[in-house]
C-alpha cells in the first residue's frame, strides 16, 4: 500500500485528536459529471438527431478514460464514509484511495505529461486534448484530496479516539511520553538520519519516488560560516511511520505517534547551534511507468527489465505533496527544483501518504473494529474426495473466491508435485510471490522430476522485481521459465497438469479470472474453474504451445483467445443478440468487468441497444460508454459495485436464443486486453453452473447498498434502499457460499 506520515504544524498542534462527535460531511454524494468537449453551438445535440444521422464514433458518446478512472478512486474514497463498514475498515479505504491515487499519478498522469513533453499528443475517443485532461484531473484530484483529509481529521480520527485508539500529537505529549519519544529519537532515529544542508557543495539531493522528506528552514551560521537557510532531511525508509507508545506512559488504550512528530520535535538536534524556523514534510511522486523498448530488448527481456527497474525510482516529477503551512517561498523553490507547476501542488492537512496508516492494523489488536473473519466454503465432494484428480474426473468445479476457498487451487498443484503419475505441469503467472504456496509447489514439482514449464509475465506493473525473483527461484529448481511474447503481456490464468492414467495421458486444467495469489484470493472476487474436459485441455495445451514455442495461430475449440478470437467472438455474440431483438425475439446481455474502454466493443453495445437489447453492465472501474442516451444507449444500464471485497470477476453473459452462453475470462473490455495481451475466456458448459453464474450476476444487479449507477452526464449516484429492503451482493454471496459445505 505504500508509505505514510502526518503533517503536524505549529498552528494546528494546539489541538489534540481526542474523542469528539464526528463532523458531518455531505449527506448525499453525487460524483461529479465528466466534463465534455465544448460543442459547436450550431451542432444538433446528439439526443435530438435521427438514428441515421448518428456517428457512433462521435466524441460526444464517450467519457474520458482518465477522468472515469479518477471517478473510480472517488467511489473508493466514499467507502470511508459508509457507516456499514467497521471503523478500521473505513480507515483502510482511505489508505487504499491514497495508494490508488499514487498509481494514478505515477502512470496515468505521468503518461499524459510525457505526451506533451515529447509532442506526442493523442486524443482519445472522447476527443479531449491531453493538456485539457491534465487540467481537469488537477481540478478534480484537488477536491478529492481535500475531502480525503476532512474525512480523516473530522470523522475517522475522532471515531477511533472514541474507541480508545488515539493518534497523539506532540503538543499534548505528557512528561513521560515526551521523555520516551526523546529516547526513541536518540536510539532509533538520530543514528541513521542524514540531514543535508543546501549550498554549492551540497546540491539538492536526488529524492526517490514517494520517499518521505522534510524541508527545514534554518537561521544562523554553522561552524564553517555557511548560512544558506535550507536543508533537506530524508526520513529513512527503514523507520516505521507510526510508533506505538508503551502502556506505562499512557492512560490506557492504544496510543500512536507519527514519525513526523518525532522528527519535528527534535529537528534542532539535527542542526546543533542553528535555529530551526520551520520543519515541513513533503513527498514527491515521479513517473514510475517502465518503458522497455521491445526493439531494444535483444534476447534478454529479464536483463532489460532489471536495468529499467533501477531507474523507476527517479523518473520525471509529476506531483508534490507538502504540509499546508509551508511558506510560499519554500513551496515555490521546491516546485522550481522539481520542474512542476501550481496545478501539480497538493498542500495537505494531514499525512503526506495515508497508505502507511495501514500499519495501524498491525499495531492495534482490535478485531472488534474490523469485519469478523469468515471461513470460505468448499463443495462437499471436493472436501470429502480421495484426491482432487479423482474429484475433477467425475465433474467440473466452479469456485468463487473469496466466498469459497482458494485452497483447492493450491492443493491442485501440491498434489501434482507429489503424484508419481503426473508427468508435466504448465502454468502462467502474472502476480504471485516468489515464496508463495503456488511457487513452493512448482519448485517441489521440478525437484521431483516433473516437466515444469512456467510462463511468467515479468512486466506485471509494480510486481516486476518480485517476478524476476520468482523466475530465478524456479530456474534454480530446474523448471523451464519463459517470459511470454515480447509485445503482448501474458495475462491469461491457466494451469495444465498432464497425468499418466493407465496407458493414456489425461489433461487436468485450472482456469481463472484472477491471479494465483493466495492473499488476493481473500480480498478479490474471482472465479476458478477446474476440469478435465478433453476439448478444453487440448485448447489450453495449444495456447501454451503458442506461448512457449513459435507457431501460426492454432485453432481452438472451446476457448476464446486474445488477441486472435476473443474480441471478434464477443462482437459476434453481441450482434446475434441485436439480430434477435430486431426479429422480436427475447435478448439479453450482462457483462461484468473491471473496465470498459475498447471502442469497437462500445460501439457494438450501442448498436445492440438501438436494436432493443436490454444490456446491463457491471463495471467496477473505468467506463467510457455513455448510458441513457435516447436512441443510442437508452437500453443500457451501468453500475459499479464497491464494497468490502474488490470486484474482479469478468463475466460475459448472452441470452442466445434461450440457450444462455456464459464465458468467464481474465480479460476486461479494454483495448489492451482484447488486442495487445494473451487472454482467454472459457465457456461454462454445465447448465447448473451457467444458471448459478446468472443468479450471482442478478445479486449484483439487485444490489442497492453498494452500487453506484452511472448517469448519462457521467456522474455516479449511490443507490439508496428503502427501509427494510437492503440488498448487498457481497453479503448475499458470503451468506450463501462461505462456511458452507455444499453438494456441488
From TrEMBL:
A Gene Ontology biological process noted in the UniProt record is: polyphosphate biosynthetic process
Q: Which sites bind ATP?
A: 100, 524, 620, 648
- What stretches pass through the bilayer? none
Alphabetical GO CC annotations of the entry are: polyphosphate kinase complex
Post-translational modification as stated in the protein's UniProt record: An intermediate of this reaction is the autophosphorylated ppk in which a phosphate is covalently linked to a histidine residue through a N-P bond.
The segment(s) forming the Polyphosphate kinase C-terminal domain are: 388-552, 559-730
The UniProt annotation puts the region (Disordered) at 1-23
Residue stretches making up the Polyphosphate kinase N-terminal domain: 62-167
Q: What is its EC number?
A: 2.7.4.1
Which cofactor does the UniProt annotation name? Mg(2+)
Q: Which residues are the active-site ones?
A: 491 (phosphohistidine intermediate)
Q: Which Pfam families match?
A: PP_kinase, PP_kinase_C, PP_kinase_C_1, PP_kinase_N
Q: Could you tell me one molecular function GO term of this UniProt entry?
A: ATP binding
Instruction: List each copy of the Polyphosphate kinase middle domain by range.
Output: 176-359
**SUPFAM superfamilies, alphabetized:** Phospholipase D/nuclease, PHP14-like, PPK N-terminal domain-like
Positions that bind Mg(2+): 431, 461
InterPro entries attached to this UniProt entry = PP_kinase (IPR003414), PP_kinase_C_1 (IPR041108), PP_kinase_middle (IPR024953), PP_kinase_middle_dom_sf (IPR036830), PPK_C_dom2 (IPR025200), PPK_N_dom (IPR025198), PPK_N_dom_sf (IPR036832)
Q: Which reaction does it catalyse?
A: [phosphate](n) + ATP = [phosphate](n+1) + ADP
Gene3D superfamilies associated with the record: Endonuclease Chain A, Polyphosphate kinase middle domain, Polyphosphate kinase N-terminal domain
Similarity comment: family membership = Belongs to the polyphosphate kinase 1 (PPK1) family.
- Role summary: Catalyzes the reversible transfer of the terminal phosphate of ATP to form a long-chain polyphosphate (polyP).
PANTHER family for this protein: POLYPHOSPHATE KINASE (PTHR30218:SF0)
Q: What is this protein called?
A: Polyphosphate kinase
Write the gene name.
ppk1
Amino acid at each position: 500500500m505504500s508509505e505514510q506520515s502526518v503533517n503536524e504544524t505549529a498552528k494546528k498542534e494546539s489541538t489534540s485528536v481526542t474523542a469528539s462527535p464526528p463532523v458531518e460531511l455531505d449527506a448525499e454524494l453525487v460524483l461529479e459529471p465528466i466534463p465534455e468537449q465544448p460543442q459547436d453551438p450550431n451542432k444538433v445535440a446528439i439526443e435530438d438527431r435521427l438514428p441515421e444521422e448518428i456517428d457512433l464514433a462521435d466524441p460526444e458518446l464517450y467519457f474520458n478514460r482518465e477522468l472515469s478512472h479518477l471517478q473510480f478512486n472517488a467511489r473508493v474514497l466514499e467507502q470511508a464514509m459508509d457507516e456499514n463498514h467497521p471503523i478500521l475498515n473505513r480507515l483502510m479505504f482511505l489508505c487504499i484511495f491514497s495508494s490508488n491515487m499514487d498509481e494514478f499519478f505515477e502512470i496515468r498522469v505521468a503518461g499524459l505529461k510525457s505526451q506533451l513533453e515529447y509532442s506526442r499528443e493523442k486524443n482519445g475517443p472522447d476527443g479531449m486534448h491531453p493538456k485539457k485532461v491534465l487540467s481537469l484531473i488537477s481540478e478534480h484530484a484537488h477536491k478529492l484530496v481535500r475531502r480525503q483529509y476532512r474525512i480523516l481529521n473530522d470523522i475517522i480520527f475522532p471515531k477511533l479516539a472514541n474507541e480508545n485508539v488515539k493518534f497523539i500529537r506532540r503538543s499534548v505529549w505528557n512528561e513521560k511520553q515526551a521523555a520516551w519519544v526523546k529516547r526513541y529519537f536518540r536510539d532509533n532515529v538520530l543514528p541513521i538520519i542524514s540531514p543535508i544542508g543546501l549550498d554549492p557543495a551540497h546540491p539538492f539531493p536526488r529524492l526517490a519516488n514517494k520517499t518521505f522528506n522534510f524541508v527545514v528552514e534554518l537561521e544562523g551560521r554553522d561552524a564553517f560560516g555557511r548560512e544558506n537557510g535550507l536543508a533537506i532531511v530524508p526520513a529513512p525508509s527503514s523507520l516505521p511511520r507510526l510508533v506505538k507508545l508503551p502502556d506505562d506512559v499512557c492512560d490506557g488504550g492504544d496510543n500512536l505517534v507519527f514519525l513526523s512528530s518525532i522528527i519535528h520535535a527534535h529537528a534542532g538536534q539535527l542542526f546543533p547551534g542553528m535555529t530551526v524556523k520551520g520543519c515541513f514534510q513533503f513527498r514527491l511522486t515521479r513517473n514510475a511507468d517502465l518503458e522497455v523498448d521491445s526493439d531494444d530488448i535483444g534476447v534478454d527481456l529479464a536483463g532489460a527489465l532489471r536495468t529499467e527497474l533501477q531507474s523507476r525510482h527517479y523518473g520525471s516529477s509529476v506531483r508534490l505533496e507538502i504540509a499546508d503551512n509551508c511558506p510560499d517561498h519554500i513551496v515555490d523553490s521546491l516546485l522550481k527544483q522539481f520542474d512542476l507547476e501550481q496545478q501539480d501542488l497538493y498542500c495537505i492537512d494531514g499525512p503526506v501518504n495515508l497508505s502507511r496508516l495501514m500499519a495501524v492494523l498491525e499495531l492495534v489488536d482490535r478485531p472488534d473494529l474490523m469485519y469478523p473473519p469468515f471461513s470460505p466454503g468448499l463443495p462437499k465432494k471436493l472436501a470429502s474426495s480421495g484426491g482432487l484428480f479423482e474429484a475433477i474426473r467425475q465433474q467440473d468445479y466452479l469456485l468463487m473466491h473469496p466466498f469459497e476457498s482458494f485452497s483447492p487451487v493450491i492443493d491442485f498443484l501440491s498434489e501434482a508435485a507429489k503424484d508419481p503419475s503426473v508427468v508435466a505441469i504448465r502454468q502462467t503467472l502474472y502476480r504471485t510471490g516468489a515464496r508463495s504456496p503456488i511457487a513452493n509447489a512448482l519448485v517441489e514439482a521440478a525437484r521431483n522430476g516433473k516437466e515444469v514449464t512456467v510462463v511468467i509475465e515479468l512486466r506485471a506493473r509494480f510486481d516486476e522485481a518480485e517476478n524476476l525473483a520468482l523466475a530465478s527461484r524456479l530456474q534454480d529448481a530446474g523448471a523451464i521459465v519463459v517470459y511470454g511474447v515480447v509485445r503482448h503481456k501474458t495475462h491469461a490464468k491457466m494451469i495444465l497438469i498432464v497425468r499418466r492414467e493407465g496407458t493414456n495421458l489425461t489433461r487436468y486444467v485450472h482456469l481463472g479470472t484472477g491471479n494465483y495469489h493466495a492473499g488476493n484470493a481473500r480480498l478479490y472476487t474471482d472465479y476458478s474453474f477446474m476440469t478435465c474436459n478433453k476439448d478444453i485441455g487440448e485448447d489450453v495445451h495449444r495456447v501454451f504451445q503458442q506461448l512457449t514455442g513459435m507457431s501460426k495461430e492454432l485453432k481452438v475449440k472451446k476457448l476464446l483467445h486474445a488477441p486472435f478470437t476473443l474480441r471478434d467472438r464477443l462482437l459476434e455474440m453481441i450482434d446475434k443478440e441485436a439480430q434477435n431483438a430486431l426479429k422480436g425475439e427475447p435478448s439479453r446481455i450482462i457483462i461484468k468487468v473491471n473496465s470498459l474502454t475498447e471502442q469497437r466493443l462500445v460501439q457494438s453495445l450501442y448498436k445492440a441497444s438501438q436494436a432493443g437489447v436490454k444490456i446491463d453492465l457491471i463495471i467496477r472501474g473505468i467506463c467510457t460508454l455513455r448510458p441513457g442516451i435516447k436512441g443510442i444507449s437508452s437500453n443500457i444500464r451501468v453500475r459499479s459495485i464497491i464494497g468490502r471485497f474488490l470486484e474482479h470477476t469478468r463475466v460475459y453473459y448472452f441470452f442466445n436464443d434461450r440457450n444462455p452462453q456464459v464465458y468467464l475470462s481474465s480479460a476486461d473490455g479494454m483495448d489492451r486486453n482484447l488486442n495487445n495481451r494473451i487472454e482467454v475466456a472459457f465457456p461454462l458448459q454445465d447448465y447448473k453452473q451457467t444458471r448459478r453464474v446468472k443468479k450471482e450476476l442478478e445479486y449484483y444487479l439487485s444490489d442497492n447498498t453498494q452500487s453506484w449507477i452511472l448517469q448519462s452526464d457521467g456522474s455516479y449516484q449511490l443507490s439508496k434502499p428503502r427501509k427494510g429492503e437492503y440488498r448487498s451482493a457481497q453479503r448475499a454471496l458470503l451468506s450463501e457460499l462461505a462456511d458452507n459445505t455444499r453438494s456441488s
